[in-house]
Write a structure and sequence with these properties.
Strand order of the largest sheet: 3-13-14-22-17-16-15
Bound molecules: glycyl-adenosine-5'-phosphate
Number of strands: 29
Helix content: 25-40%
Distance between the termini: 32 Å
Largest sheet: 7 strands, mixed
Strand content: 25-35%
Length: 544
């Protein structure tokens, strides 16, 4: 059934992604590498189209002379492309070195490692024996998994499962232990056969570490792969100000790879260890920052809708005060109901955060901590900054108002891989179309927005005659198109539907006589006869 959260639908999407060359496991011939993914011929085009649409809509196509709907004033946008490895002090001042960690838990028996907050469990009892059964399965799979594990633990046959007494529903292991309603000694790990095998939770920094230089060895050579693209923008703030004519308010955008050593990468590309981000750091006057925060939250929300994500599967969620990062004054997440999640659950596509002056001040003064409602430089036992800042002045002087201030930052931070996955899942449809004889045949179709579709048009000649590739050659300089003369026309349509191609052009016997072709629309299936000489303009119009 369409538009439902279910794992089998997700499995069919993953299978299409592999079969049609959207996404492959990295290093697959060696068994793959958990948390790393490669984009195949169609996938690279889809993801590139998504990033290009973002860059065009946010940066290159931005009209800095106009006041856009909802914006407090006109503003400028510019871009950067920074390195993946940066000075280690960047991560010390940003807080990532000390704070960018997850809690992990190991199983002494199975030797498996889990993210503490991913484990859920519930009490199960049978004939006086009690155990807190856990699982790391997510979504709708979690509850049945605990039943199967309890059945195995108590050594029951399938028909005896009803004899298990359950002490309530699934709850987070972390919360159950914090509340004292479970202990690690009573807990049956997700892959263990006996309780008590899980270790105490430990912190695990998510930054990938590397060494710089051939003779690398001591602590000075330690470096990190960036876990976000944002910091490259903050440390270049002054360079951009000094070399371009931008004035506050303005934004700097960056698209690029980020790396996080996720403890349990999962759900296809959703949580990967190497992924791409599309981030904007928007610098504004402190007094205007709340209005800019609202502008960017609404603008980014609308972007996903305009590119065709189903409104009913999207959610804009303002964070509660206790959810905010230590620096954040306000954050909203744009979330999507991915099919691998349980009904009613959403996964984050993008966060829009009001970061105040935390970032620029951190890189001036040193790592900041919140104290008495304000931000102060964290000091060590010697009273000196724990992590020293650059000492460079990153304030801004407004030569019209003659004011000097440290700009506040609004950060719309999106994941290119998560967005690609959301568009892929949303576009996936199974329906029925009439075949060449008018009989219904089931088809799989990706109803991607034409801007995102890897191939915009397919030219399908039904007759092999000289000159047929002409239309293809006329169209190719304007948009990605394919020439396909293999197989029945039905099979060719099916191939293009699965690839998400919005328009197919069939060239037949009549084409040579009257210079017309049949244009078939992927979604409406409407077919119309159009003049060959008008095809390029017609499709360019549709695309724009
Ligand atoms: N600079 C802020 C920042 O990085 P974040 O919420 O940690 O914020 C922003 O990340 C976006 O990056 C997320 O909304 C998500 O789309 C993407 N992202 C984060 N971790 C990811 C992962 N492990 N795999 C894929 N995408 C990820």
């Amino acid at each position: 059934m369409q538009n439902q959260n279910d794992q089998s639908r997700m499995d069919r999407i993953v299978s299409l992604a592999k079969r049609r060359g959207f996404i492959f496991q990295s290093s697959e011939i060696y068994g793959g590498l958990n948390g790393f993914w490669d984009y195949g011929p169609l996938g690279v085009a889809l993801k590139r189209n998504l990033k290009d649409a973002w860059w065009h809509d946010m940066v290159a196509g931005h009209d800095e002379l106009a006041t856009l709907a909802g914006a407090p004033s006109p503003y400028e946008m510019t871009g950067l492309d920074c390195t993946i490895i940066m000075h280690p002090q960047v991560w010390k001042c940003s807080g990532h070195f000390d704070l960018f960690h997850d809690w992990m838990i190991d199983c002494r028996e199975s030797k498996r490692r889990y993210r503490y907050d991913h484990l859920h469990g519930r009490w199960a009892a049978h004939r006086g024996k009690k155990v807190f059964v856990t699982t790391d399965a997510s979504g709708d799979e979690a509850a049945p998994e605990t039943v199967a594990r309890a059945q195995k633990f108590f050594g029951l046959r399938a028909k005896q499962v009803d004899e298990i007494e359950w002490g309530g529903g699934l709850e987070s292991l972390q919360q159950a232990i914090a509340a004292g309603s479970a202990t690690l000694a009573d807990t049956l790990g997700p892959d263990a056969t006996a309780p008590g095998s899980l270790t105490e939770p430990r912190e695990f920094n998510l930054m990938f570490e590397t060494r710089i230089g051939a003779l690398a060895g001591d602590d000075e050579d330690r470096a990190f792969l960036r876990p976000e693209t944002a910091q490259g923008i903050f440390v270049n703030f002054k360079n951009v100000l000094d070399t371009s004519r931008v004035r506050v308010p303005f934004g700097i955008a960056q698209v690029g790879k980020s790396f996080r050593n996720e403890i349990t990468p999962r759900n296809f590309t959703f949580r990967s260890r190497e992924f791409e981000q599309m981030e904007i750091e928007f610098f504004c006057k402190p007094a205007d920052s709340a209005a800019w925060y609202r502008y960017w939250r609404d603008r980014r929300w609308k972007w996903y809708l305009d590119l065709g994500l189903t409104a009913g599967r999207l959610q804009l969620r303002e964070h509660a005060a206790d959810e905010l990062s230590h620096y954040s004054v306000g954050t909203a997440d744009i979330e999507y109901a991915f099919p691998f999640l349980a009904a009613g659950e959403f996964g984050e596509l993008e966060g829009i955060a009001h970061r105040g002056d935390f970032d620029l001040r951190s890189h001036m003064e040193g790592k900041l901590v919140r104290q008495d409602g304000g931000l102060v430089v964290e000091t060590g036992p010697d009273g000196k900054p724990r992590h020293k800042g650059s000492g460079k002045d990153l304030s801004y002087f407004d030569d019209i108002t003659r004011e000097r201030f440290v700009p506040h930052v609004i950060e719309p931070s999106a994941g290119a891989d998560r967005a690609t996955l959301a568009f892929l899942c949303d576009a996936y449809h199974e329906d029925e179309v009439p075949d060449e004889d008018g009989k219904p045949r089931s088809r799989t179709v990706l109803k991607l927005h034409p801007r995102l579709a890897p191939v915009k048009a397919a030219i399908l000649p039904l007759v092999k005659k000289d000159g047929m590739p002409d239309l293809y050659r006329a169209l190719k300089p304007h948009m990605a198109c394919q020439y396909d003369e293999k197989g029945s026309v039905g099979r060719r349509y099916a191939r293009q539907d699965e690839a998400g191609t919005p328009w197919c052009l069939t060239v037949d016997g009549q084409s040579l006589a009257d210079r017309t072709v049949t244009l078939r629309d992927r979604d409406s299936l409407v077919q119309q006869r159009v003049a060959i000489d008008e095809v390029v303009d017609l499709l360019r119009d549709k695309l724009s």
